[in-house]
Structures are given as structure tokens and as C-alpha cells.
Amino acid sequence: MLIFAITIFPSYVLTNISYAEDSNNNIIPEKETVDQETIKDQPSGSVPIKTEENNTPNLENSETPKDQSLNNLSPQPDEKKTEKEIAPESTLEQTPVDSPAVKEGDDTVTKEEILEIIEDQSPIPVKNIVQEDSNTFVSEQKSLGIEVEIDTEENSVMLGEKGVEVTIGMPNADEEDVEMEVVDGQMVSTSDELDVVVQAIEGGVRQVITIDSQDAATYYDFPVELPSGYYLAQDNVGNVTIRNKNGKILTYVPRPWAKDADGNDIPTHYTIEGTTLRQHIDIGKATTFPIIADPIWCGQAIKSVKWINRGGTHPWSASVVPTTCGAWLGGGFQWGAWQELVDKTPKSSRWDKKYGTSKYWSMYNQYFCHADWAGGFKTPWNLEPTRPNVGYAKTVAAMCNP
Q: Using one digit for the tens of pLDDT, what is the confidence trace for 134-145?
């Protein structure tokens, strides 16, 4: 029996949208429950499932669970929904609420202790960052066409995907006392006001900030240099993408999370200010410090897809291996990750990938079920096009294998 330790990955739980079921048993959000004054329209895609120990399905067990509680379910895509483009010339009008925290004397933590805190509260597999020259540190993932490059002079991080680059500034870049050093393959950037750790992960990069006191700032800015024709867009559950006007997604940024030193979830959300991603953190809700929080910037969610014959009633499977980014995002992230899977699935008579067919929605529901519930705990995710399309809820009830 496979047991899921849900606390390893952050839980992106949707609380402000209710759901209805259409005539095809596909779960869709009821848009009127969304505050249109404060959030953007959601692009086509799925919505995260609430993950709790008492309703996590065991994907190794074929028995259908009884009285399964599904609090938040993934909708089928609605291609009529659009996102509002954020004009790059927008200005930052909001001023910081509080002055950042300053470490006091002997209470200053070491770089190694910062990494221990992150490992304790939010572990994730990392790729080594190595020094290239005096000011440049890199981590290359040649099989994916992904490169992470850190410029210690500019205090910035570049995420490159097959030659297309996005450069992200560090929230402590303007500080005069910044020190940067690679420790255990991770870049640790420290200053009197804020510490930031940069981790190269399969498919992307993560920036983790540590907040040391109740007197710290309540938001942190990540300025972004975008390729020509691309802009920041946000859906109505807090996810952000870098995309162009044709809908091509270059980078995924899943909705944020934050935890205090006791592992309690701290309210946090993103806003887009021109070409800056701003993370707001309700530090008043913390019981212990430090708080850790992060943006994850993902260039690719799917590492590989191949057809395999496993025998049985549904012999042929599309065997999907997510990147660390893809497993971290979860299926509930949005339509773009699914489209990446479709594009990377080899052509086959077993599945023509034609939109709107029963096989299409069966594969769609199986994918989101695995990504929402299995994450990185069970890979690969095996999807069979011959399984019936029974809608998302019944797919989950059947342990992702209807």
C-alpha cells in the first residue's frame, strides 16, 4: 500500500470558488462567486484539489473508496475565458508598510542554518549550482534545454529555456551589504534585512526568502525582465504565467505559499505591478519565526512521455514523467501544463489527441487526477486512452483508473 506524506509539498487549496457539474460530469467553477474587482479572469485549466490525510486516495489500490470527500475539483477547460494583459509601463504605486527586519548580534543565523530551516519546512530535490566565472554561477539541464544563471554582481537570476531568457531580480538586490555564496549547491544571498536562497530544480528555479521578525516588510518584489512580446498574467486562483498574446506559456509560477517555523501556513498572495511580481505575506499570522516563502519559476512541467504496453484490460499507457517543477505544480495549476503533456506525447493510433473527444477527456482527467493526488510521490503517471471518460470526480474515486 502506498501512503502519501502530503506535508512534503505545499498544498494549493482553493477556498473562494464553488463548483457545479455540467451534463458530462465535468466539474466547472461557478464564476459568480469570484470577486472580479480583485482577481483576474482564470484561463482554461483545472483548479487545485484540497489535500487532506483523511481523503487522499491510494493510487495503488483498485478498490473504489466509500464516502470520498472531494472539496475542490478540477474543471474542464473553457477556452472562452481570457486573461487581462498587464501593461509593462504600469508603475509601482504602493509603498512598503513596514521596515524590514534586522538581525540582532548573536541571533544572526549562518548560511548553513538557513538551508536547514528550508530543508525542514519545504524540502525539494535540487540541482547543483556551480561557479562559471567570478560573478556567474550556473546550473544546466541540457536534456530539457533549461539553464539557470545567477549574476552575483546584478543580484539576479536568469531562467533560460531553449535560448529564450527570463531574468528575475532578487528582493534584496538594492541592499548594500549583500553577500552571496554557494553552499551545498545552492546560492545563499544574505543581507541585514533579508536572506534569499536560490535553488535550481528540474525544470526551473526557486527563490526562497526567510523573514526573521514581526517588524519585517509585508511584501517583497521580484522584478522581471521579459522577452519581447511576453507579459505577466494572473488567473483567479493566484497562479501567474509569462505568456505571449497567442497564449504560448513560457514560464509557470504557481500560487505562492508561506510557512512559519512551526510549519503553520501563513496567508500570502501575488499581485502584478507592471513587470514586477510582488509577494504579499501576512506576517502578523505567524506564531514563530523565521517565515519562509517562495516563488517557483518553471520552464517545463513534463520531462518525458512514452508509450508502454503493461498488459491487462487497458494494455497501452502513455507513461508520463513530470519534472520536479511539474510534480510541485500539481495538476491543478492550469491548462498550460496539460498542453505541454499533449505536445510531448508521441503520435500514435492509440490516441489522436483530438480535442473534445471521449479519449481526450479521459486522458485529461487521468492526468489531473495523478498530478493532483500523486504529485512526486508516485511516478511515472500512466494514462490509458481506452479507459472511459467518467468525469473528474469519478476518475478520482476510481483511484485515477476508471
A: 899 999 999 899
- How far apart CA 319 and CA 322 sit, in angstroms, is 10
**What's the whole-model pTM score?**
0.71
Which residues sit opposite 28 in a β-bridge?
20
Yes or no: say if 392 and 72 are a contact pair by the CB < 8 Å rule: no
Is 230 in contact with 242 (CB distance < 8 Å)?
Answer: yes
- The whole-angstrom separation of Cα 195 and Cα 187 is 11
Measured between alpha carbons, how far is 201 from 124 in angstroms, rounded to an integer? 8
Q: How far apart are CA 138 and CA 140, in angstroms?
A: 6
Q: Give the 3-state secondary structure of residue 326.
A: helix
For residues 124 and 206, the answer to whether their CB atoms sit within 8 Å is: yes
Q: Looking at this protein, which amino acid is placed at residue 265?
A: D
Average pLDDT of every residue of the chain: 76
Q: What is the pLDDT of residue 398?
A: 95
Inter-CA distances, 119 with 180, 217, 223, 351, Å: 19, 23, 26, 41
Burial of 99 (0-12, 13-18, 19+ CB in 10 A): exposed
Residue 183 phi, psi dihedral angles, 5° rounding: -130, 125
Question: Does residue 274 contact residue 86 with C-beta atoms inside 8 Å?
Answer: yes
Whole-Å CA distances, 239 to 85, 88, 205: 14, 19, 16
CA gap 52, 64 in Å, rounded: 18
Q: Are strands 316-322 and 381-383 parallel, antiparallel or unpaired?
A: antiparallel
Separation CA 253–CA 299 (nearest Å): 9
DSSP class of residue 265? B
What would the pLDDT profile of 277-314 be if each residue is shown by its tens digit?
999 999 888 888 889 998 999 999 999 999 999 999 99
Q: Whose CA is closest to 274, among 206, 209, 220, 226?
A: 226
Give the tens place of pLDDT for each residue, 3-28.
333 333 333 333 233 333 444 554 43
